[in-house]
Amino acid sequence: LNNCRSHQSYYTALSRMATAAGTLTLPSIGSNRSSPIDSKKIQGGCSGFLRQEFRKLELLDNITTQQYHGLTPITVTGDT
């Protein structure tokens, strides 16, 4: 975790664990920090680009759900 540069890399590293209960994080040898997790990296928020990407994915998810249930407004057109 010491080499993780962003909250995304923390997520990727920790998502490889089988269970949270079986996961133990330890500080590096010689580190004066009590935790191996840098709170600035995981609490700093995501970039504007990533927020925009999530917004687009949410819109696509809403359109897909509406299409699946036959609720797509006639004004929504496009190739699928």
- What is the makeup of the main sheet? none
Shape: elongated
The number of distinct structural domains comes to 2
Topology as a string of helices (H) and strands (E): HHH
Helix content: 40-55%
Q: What is the radius of gyration computed over CA atoms, rounded to a whole number of angstroms?
A: 20 Å
Q: DSSP helix count?
A: 3
Rounded average pLDDT? 81
| Tally of DSSP β-strands | 0
Strand percentage lies at under 5%
The termini sit apart by 41 Å
Give the low-pLDDT segments: none
Structural class: mainly alpha
SSE map:
Layout: H1 7-14, H2 39-43, H3 48-68
Describe this structure in words.
This protein is mostly helical. It has two domains: 1-45, no CATH class; 47-80. The chain is 42% helix and 0% strand. It has three helices and no strands. The protein has helices spanning 7-14, 39-43, 48-68. The longest helix has 21 residues, at 48-68. The chain is elongated, with a radius of gyration of 20 Å. The termini are far apart. The mean pLDDT is 81.
